[in-house]
Amino acid sequence: MTRLKAVPRCVCLTGPTACGKTEIALALAERLPVEIVSMDSAMVYRGLDIGTAKPSASVREQVPHHLVDIVEPNDAYSAGRFARDAAAAVRAIAARGRLPLLVGGTLLYLRALREGLANLPRADAALRDELDAQARELGWPALHARLQRVDPAAAARIAPTDRQRIQRALEVHALTGRPLSQLQGTVAEDDRLEIATVALVPEDRAALARRIERRFDAMVDLGFVAEVQNLRARGDLTKELPALRAVGYRQIWGHLEGAYDWQEARRRALVATRQLAKRQLTWLRGDRVSERWPAEASGLAATFLDRVERFLAR
To answer: Which of 45, 96, 112, 202 is in Cβ range 3.0-4.6 Å of 295 for a Cys bridge?
Structure first.
């Protein structure tokens, strides 16, 4: 008789930026043998520490973290690579008899882990240059409108100002003649996971905006500007790299280049972070798999512990 391969189980804690995911994850680690798998597209990069709210060395000594500091900021890291790396990490953690806990707000990564990604065509430099030229003339919202015509499902998930993802979706359609949304793959047998997902969803947007502001100012006090200065001093990075598009980094980089003063840099960084949170909340509203919990509810850590224990006891 053929034996079915056991599918590892893991828990995912997600939600928009600055909603309190880290605090709850670390509280869970005090009660259960947890190893955290970061689901954050910026924490993978070495040298991006303060502005990504990366866990400190002491925290990582107490609670093992995976997929943190694994690539240089001039390297590329994709959702497909994350799905493979995360699945491997979850299997290894489960094999040690510990609980894999995915934590982060990069929801494209979550979708890739759940659904898989197709074997998509490589980037085409000439086509990207052409799309960039069209965007300079017409604006990215106009290209987003084009994407709505050829791939409405992808357009619904992508903000009209999200240059990178609009460009990629149009590029894939031009190269394959098929919508990117139809080219989503299936998860390979060896990468299949059972994922219980809890999303913290702030109901008070004004309170979230205040929290974003306080966190940004605290990062600045910790040396965020000096961190970006050090990245610029390397000489091999530009603000156009995916790593440096992380909220806060690009705006501070522009300030250091002399494009605008500090108050304008701070304003732009806060606006970009609020827009990120809005996109994350929009994605979560359309997600029928995750359990959505009010982020402001009292006793969330205890509630989350109870939810995880019930999942593990099934």
So the answer is: 202
